[in-house]
Each structure stands twice: as structure tokens, then as C-alpha cells.
Amino acid sequence: SPWADLISPANGIYTSQWVLRQQADHFTLQVATGGSASAIVKILHRYGDARDRAYVALNQDDEVRYLALVGSFSTRLEAKQYLNTLDPGLKVNKPWVRRFESIQGLTND
């Protein structure tokens, strides 16, 4: 099926397809941003036991930036509560709560 990669993503990390299929009014944690897809994937591997993990490419100021995202939550409160449970070592990039619609409109796909 065309959505097979959504069910069992390569290396356990979803791509923009998954992000685009999330409900626009749901929330995720942006855990990092950077200019290298491989560096972003490496960061996501540290969240091995986390809920859904994904990365997405965005065009910003004529540059491609990659976002590392963790989780899909129906409320901001649920996302914040999950953020509070993260290992301190995973908070080094100051993760923050974002609404999916704020990302979906920016993706390269």
C-alpha cells in the first residue's frame, strides 16, 4: 500500500507523509531543527522509546531546514505533559509544542 511506510517507517522514523496526514489541530513536539537530515535523524534516534518520531524538510529563506518532531497529541496539555516526562538529556534543544497545521503548510512535499 502507498501508506506502508506510515505504518512501519524505515528506521522507525516517519517522514513528511506522516506529518501531512496528522490532524491539523493536533499538536507535536519540535525537538530540534537543523540543516542536515542525517543529524536530525541522529537526534531522533535518541528518542528511541518515544511515541511517533518524524522529520520533515521545510524551505526557509531559500534554505532547506529539517525539523525533528515527536508525538501526535490531541491537546496542547497532553503534549506539554509528555514534554515534562522527557529525559533531561532530550531537552537540550529546548523542545516546544507546535500545532501540526503550522508545519503542514511549510513542508516541501
List the defining traits of the structure above:
single chain, about 110 residues, alpha+beta, 4-stranded antiparallel beta sheet, 4 strands, disordered N terminus
Query: In sequence order, what are the helices and strands, one letter per element?
Result: HHEHEEHEH
Please give the radius of gyration in angstroms: 13 Å
Helical proportion, percent range: 25-40%
Name the assembly state. single chain
Largest sheet: 4 strands, antiparallel
Give the termini distance in whole angstroms: 19 Å
SS summary, helix count: 5
Total count of strands: 4
Parts with pLDDT < 50 across at least 5 consecutive residues: 1-8
* Rounded mean pLDDT score: 86
Strand content: 25-35%
Structural class comes to alpha+beta
Shape: globular
- What strand order characterises the main sheet? 2-3-1-4
General description of the model:
The chain is α+β, with helices and mostly antiparallel strands. The protein is 31% helix and 28% strand. The protein has five helices and four strands. It has helices at residues 4-7, 16-21, 37-45, 76-85, 100-104; strands at residues 27-34, 53-60, 63-73, 96-99. It has a four-stranded antiparallel sheet. The longest helix is centred in the C-terminal third of the chain and has 10 residues, at 76-85. The model is unreliable at 1-8 (pLDDT under 50).
